[in-house]
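The material for today's practical consists of a large collection of protein records. Backbone structure tokens are a discrete shorthand for how the chain folds in space. An example says more than a description, so a record of this kind follows:
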Amino acid sequence: MISIPVRVPGQSYEVLLDDGLLSRAAGAIAERLGAPRIVVVADDKVLEPHASILIKGLQRDGLTVAVTAITASEELKTLATVERLYQFFSDQRLDRSGLVIALGGGLVGDVAGFAAATWMRGVPLVQAPTTLLAMVDASIGGKTAVNIATAPRGDQSGGQSGGPAGRPLLKNMVGAFWQPSAILADPKTLRTLPARELRAGLAECVKHAIIAEPELLAYIEEHHRAIVALESPQLGELLRRSIAIKARIVGEDPTERGQRALLNLGHTFAHAIEPIAELGLNHGEAVAIGLCAAAHLAASRHGFPSADVGRIERVLASIGLPTRLPAADSHLSTAVPRLLEAMGHDKKHHAGSLRLILPKAIGSVEIVEGVSHAAIAAAWRIVGAESRSS
């Protein structure tokens, strides 16, 4: 078993990485936490086999376990879903001596984590990610959140999924930092993951490489076929190195006051396009396009080598991720003015200024504010956005 420490002020925990770990979770939990009562919040798509494996293992070792399922949908990632979890926690008499296990992808980790953070002012949480994206990114660092719908500013709802009356969602706008007590990463769970979801997680691995480790990008370039085929040595090495990058950055800045913001590379662009229903992009695909947009912007305005822009695009393409916006039925959905407006709603909009993370070199990025709308618009056009708005 590989143990990767996450050291944040006042608390340290481990990411435990091993094939078959879910079936042995009781030992890991009992050794570190000793919780007598456990509530598992599972993605309804992983009740079989992953939740069953986890629960049988816990019960075999004499632990009291109750399970509830939620649907991993952005439209249901709401306070109403959290309230339903509160009711389940109450029914199970969950208190601070108990434990919540979030089993699933990043969305389930966000919702279950936020419920754990706010139930009785905080109960212990274990993240058990079952997607690559969650293993290397979302489960690490204590971010928990739900979405809210907002009244549209002018007419900006066209083509975007959202809350009541088609209002666009503000992603992860209500949340809390709540560090898990442990993270149980079982690579065997990835074998049931659809290929598209696996590729989505690889976008975050590429992002980590651009931020902090040129050698990781070279490793993905060399071994991308084996990684996509889930060959154990290469997949395990990718997971270990990518998790270690996230753990190190989180440890330096647990509440995103400084360096942790670097992990948002590509995300301010991605969050503008991910909610556009007709594009059909998942999070990793949107991040891949966002990484390309950020690279082009850095090349045009901040001296990022154009050769490295091409390298990023080639790596993403080699693992089956998009580097340009897909064609939309209506140019209105991807019109540059609408995308700029959507970026203005992003949480990275800081003190009236849009904060962007841009690469300086492979392995080095910086926080940039005050980038002109014209420069951002040019980057959007390079990755396929429409110039027209009407």
